[in-house]
Amino acid sequence: MGFAVDWRVVVFSLIVSLAATLVFGLAAVAKSRGDGAWLITTLRDGGRGTTVARSQLGGAIVAAQLAVAMVVLLGAFLLVRSYGRVRDVDAGFDPANVTTARVSLPDATYPRGEKQVAFFQQVIARITERRGVVAAGAVSILPESPNFDQTTVRPDGRTYGPNEAPSPDVYRVTPGYFAAMRITLRAGRLFSAEDDDRHPLVAVINQTMANALFPGRSPLGQRMWTGAGNAERTIVGVVGDVYQYGLDSVKTMQFYVPHADNSGGDLTLVVRSIDASVPAAATIREAVRAVDPGVPVDDILSMNQVLTESASKRRLLAGVSLTFALGAIGLAAIGLYGLIAFAVEQRTHEIGVRMAMGATRRSVLWLVLGGTSRLVAGGAAIGLATAAFANRFMAPFLFGVRVTDPVTLAFAPAILVVVALAASAAPAIRAARVNPAIALRDE
Fold it and tell me: For the ranges 100-114, 342-356, 358-372, which has the lowest average pLDDT?
């Protein structure tokens, strides 16, 4: 039994988590500000040791929060960049303005053979007649779908031991499939209407299969025995590679045979439109209904939706990790704000004395921000050192980036520094605005 992630539940959980972080973080700030009044009294009574100890403890806690935030932020950035790299991969086809729909023919009505072939020929002919349709075809296994099919092949004149014969992915396709998906023809020709069981059997292979089985020579005209129809086929074309198991997977050998000479099983219709305004889904339903109203049409999706679904795990992982990173940064920022505000409150008299002796507001501002910068630098350094060890375990989850990705190592610390300085800006400005006369009189 499987399960699905409901985005509404995820969003609600994230909102609750962030709200809890803010509430408890702000409560800690309020507590530190309340403790400030008590600590001022303690200071007046000679309890400086306790105040310094508490301040050092608070600094250590905030530095730890900053370090954790750095580790989580670095990991999140790596996952986000990995997802971006996956989306940038050339899938081997053009998904824009392509609509797909699964069609299942009842075995009792459409036995394997001419009836199945005729049904899809009529449906595709009706679809291509509609205005706005550029090309249409059908395939047994849609690229990037969770399904796959394989067959054993043996080039003529070559022998293999038990279980050693190549097993490429096999696809049954109609002649218009390659045009509808815009899969590039590299050599030879594609299938035509004459490629059926009344003519010599043919096949089209992808570039990876051509390189693996026919290195240094042309595969065109080569014959091979195949489990797809248990027959000998002649290779008539070579097409570009298509990712079948996800854009972050390796390229596989792919073997195409005409549906007209090897019919049987469901097919997925693939329709390319001029633009998104063309009602391709309705066109598919109407064409199938016109040929046989009793045949169901399922899983109507755009090819972009299929690609998005294939990368959904990476997208979810990147999104969740980024949310946790934002929460960690927020918590660290709240803690830093509370610590700096507390420190400014404790040093009000000292700041008043400095200003009475000629210190400028700018020098007071830099005094506070300088202490913040040292704290942030320490936390960030600890975080980077920890991440250098911890992120090694992320390597299996990354694609197209390394754990030492320079962009991530530069950008993540910069974000943390900016957030930290923003969090300490208000207490620093408040310190620069201290009235020396009032500060000295209150003391």
Answer: 342-356
Single out the residue of 346, 345, 336 nearest to residue 369, CA to CA: 336
Q: What is the pLDDT of residue 355?
A: 66
- pLDDT tens digits for range 53-93: 455 666 677 778 888 888 888 888 888 888 888 888 889 99
CB 197 within 8 A of CB 263: no
